[in-house]
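Quick one: structure for this chain?
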Amino acid sequence: MLQFSKYQGLGNDFVLLEGRAGQLPLNITEPDPHWVRQLCDRRFGIGGDGLILALPPQHGEELRMRIFNADGSEAEMCGNGIRCLARFLADSDGDQPGRTWRTETMAGVIVPELCEDGQIRVDMGQPFLDPGAIPTTLTTGPSGLPQGEIDLQGSSLQLAAVGMGNPHVVVPVQDLQTIPFDAWGSALEVHPLFPAKTNVHFLEVIDQHTLEIRVWERGAGPTLACGTGACATLVAATLLGLSNSKATVKLPGGPLEISWPDPQGSVFMTGPAVAVFDGVLNPELLPQPGQGSQQQPIPGKAVGQPTPSSRDASPASAPVSTSLDCANDCKDSCQQPDHCLREEAQARVQQFLSSTSLDAMINLAGDSLEERTLSRLNRDDRP
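Got it. Here's what it folds into:
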């Protein structure tokens, strides 16, 4: 039986699985996209905008995060997702304010911090403004941003692209309530200007300190919030002269505080993340042994090519793990047949299932859920 937790950040909700000790089997750490879609289905599964896995690190940091969109595709990073992960870790481990987690992502190392008021502040790293790093075929304009104007369904739109480890396009508009949001959002997500597809943010400037956006998220469609998108929006608005370098970004799910104090430095995001519920997945909904599938590479990114990022751990301070990666190294044939990691993991799972009664599994899950619930209650009781 698989225990899970459900968290949300401004209505952007995720299923989280604990695997920092390496306890998750390969068919979950390398999930089949169909299983992810089933898990995130709001009628036939748990429901969510994505799946987050907390995994052992590969490059010497504290942990690694993998995040999968509701359509089964893997995302490089997610601002709301990493806040939810940090809140999950704090609840699980009983951490106190000031705790930080150096987290490996496909966008580099991201560092969330638990604040005194329970919110999560995240050093999101430097934005990517080079068109090739975003990636986009838009060319750099006078503001230093990749910019352009396109005709979309009879309307002329100004575009500005920013990378936050994942691609974003910001589209300033006069009135968010009158635009054909679904039509424009879905068209821009897959526009040829963005070879890896893109997240889309329609921006209405309220004043120099307040921005409002609506989000069309790559691989998920309309969502209530997008943390990396709020950061990308502030960067674009700042460089376009539409806002200050610190502003409240209002999203349908609520506000985020975004700041970019140094044009050569990191963007910082502060916002909430909340536990919704914990549960145990019905065994019939678990992926079968061997069902795991190697994820398709993100379009526009070569297999094995690191995402350009100043946040990546340097080889000197974070040596790369030399452990065998079954999903990649053994996709044609087992490279270590006398000591097969996949078979060992599956054998451990089968041994546990065959030696543990259903009642014992339920008790184990119940004890763990009770510990997490008490941790949250104790946290909420602190002055």
